[in-house]
């Protein structure tokens, strides 16, 4: 398994680690990584590895077998051997923009109080698919509400809850936009706001900024009809 350093410190940009495996497709697995793997609508991180005077560009990171995270080189090159120690460097600007968009989408799920059945993130925009029959008519109100939450500079934090604890507090599930998967061990909860006065609380394995003020000004984008009960809403980072 790979230790996921981004879960405990999403602001960690560099870290040394040891190669523990190669994959048949030409990727490599590290003992611990700062690279977030593609999942939950968030793209995998890019960056580079430095090793004995050599530099390997990493195009993305994906989930491998078990709890392994596979780093995918940008081009086919000889990989550092198993046991080698490498230095990881994130493409920080791209990652940070993913963090800003991801946190903004949590706010969008609060402002538009309908079920969410899909989403995607890029470095400049994000979108959520809502289980709603009609497009919202109050575009300005939605944008103003999003930016009001940004201006609050609310704290973003996380914690863990076991499935048994979650089952013992069924009312907590009613506060979550997405129900957690079963059988995957403890469930990570991301909270926006304070424990006694939160804005949003939902299970999420992605990376987020530490405070909503870090998101910056948001612009509401297109609202598309994707089905009888599906409206897709885009938001954009202003810079």
Alpha-beta classification:
alpha+beta
How many distinct helices? 5
**SSE arrangement, N to C:** EHEEEEEEEHEEHEHHEEEE
Number of strands: 15
Structural summary, described in words:
The protein has a six-stranded antiparallel beta barrel. The relative contact order is 0.16. Helix 2 (92-111) packs across helix 3 (139-152). The chain is globular. The protein has 239 residues and is α+β, with helices and mostly antiparallel strands. It is built from five helices and 15 strands.
What's the quick description here?
By secondary structure, this protein is α+β, with helices and mostly antiparallel strands. It contains 5 helices and 15 strands. A hairpin with a 2-residue loop joins strand 12 (187-194) and strand 13 (197-203).
